[in-house]
Structure prediction request, 477 residues.
Amino acid sequence: MNALTRDLIRLTENAEKSADADGRFRQRIHLIPPVGWLNDPNGLCRFREKYHAFFQYSPFDAEGGVKMWGHCTSKDMIDWEYQGAALYPDQPFDCHGVYSGSAFIEDGEMYLYYTGNVKLEDRGDYDYINSGRESNTILVTSRDGQTFGSKTELMRNTDYPADLTLHVRDPKVWKHQGSYYMIQGARTKDDTGQALIFRSSDRINWELHNRVEAEDPFGYMWECPDYYETGGMKILSASVQGLKGGEWEDRNVYQSGYFLVEGNILDEYRLSGYRLWDYGFDYYAPQSFETEDGRRIQIGWMGMPDCEEYTNPTIRDGWQHCFTFPREVYVKDGIVRQRPVRELEERERRVRTEHMRPGSDAFEVKDCEVYDLTVREVRENKFRAVLGEELVLEHRDGRFEMRFTDQDKGAVSAGRGTRYVHLEHLEDIRVLTDVSSVEVFINGGEYVFSTRYYPEKAHVRVEAEGAEIKFNIILTA
Ligand code: FRU
Prediction:
């Protein structure tokens, strides 16, 4: 261990000791940082009888800083136990951030691949796109999932194609027909986003194998790419920066979505149009893994980078951001959908369940913060719900909306306004809340909206004439 690592461990532990464990908006069933800032999920996997989730972590400042990897484990993907920081920015090749990456499990060993970020000291002439930075691909292994070995530098910018800027990052690794493949996000010198696929026969030595782009240039940078097959669909996920004009004007600063892949992503392929994973305010950089029973689980960062429009008042309490609740990505009727992991329903069996068929009266529950509400058999799109007295979920004028009635940064919204999707028929809707978040799944999870919110009173009121309402209070451990 070098002297810097030793100090970083001590400083991190001190910062964690000063954390405000009872802060008003701390989440109950969503992974949050013990203190400071969290962004992308990293290294998601099942290893030695536990789920592991790492996260981009800046313990010293709730508004961000140099990133390390925080580490949590869980038995059920609902209650997460913090295990300490796993990887610190303590080497010349990752000294400005242990950036995002993934876990690959084989033969009882955990392989963690990530990007070592280096920003050279500003001499006044760096643009930090084509000059002044390094993106190194690093490997760390672990046999027990608790202690992590030394870091090996696998690739640096000179190993990536020469027509790329210095923005290459976020490796995700999988195995296919005896070979290992790694996908990374990239920005070309002419400002086009794309993904690179590398191949290896030993998990250590990697060679460029293919490059993946949309038919027409699509954004300037693809972050955190992921590739997998589920339900017969081939899915290329990417968080895209630089989409402008048209529908993007009403959306978040950056997007997170997927392309369907026709053909073979390792060879000849064609990408479909891009579809968003989530239409809400807070969703970015998702990553996925497969459970032992073959489910594809995806977790996103319930936050948004470089966002000036809205904020999170938890900054006052010394922390910011959380993960989304883990979702199963599944395919039904040829459509890619998402739903909360089924472990949640097992948890719900321990709680009060109410079924109601109200007439024209509203369904109301007061003072309940963590619940799972399902409304089925919605009639003629008649649906309106108000959460925390200021967050409206509603079908009107051919669209489904998530709308805050007060967009002030001091309000429940903390600055958020309206997000929507065009929707002809609203059939069912599921709303999963925590103390300071709401995740909405529409029509069997065909569309999802996620947002943070900061209610004084966690009331919910639903108007959905003739529909069936099921309300589950979720107890936490
Ligand atoms: C996405 C991202 C990644 C990067 C990480 C740094 O939110 O920008 O591309 O690895 O965050 O924290």
Q: What stands out?
A: The chain is about 5% helix and 50% strand. The helical segments are 3-17, 343-348.
